[in-house]
Amino acid sequence: HQNMQQPSLKSALLVLFVVFAFLLQFPLISIANQEHIIGNIPQLYLYIFGTWLLMIVLLGILLERNRLKS
Question: What pTM was computed for the model?
Answer without folding.
Answer: 0.79
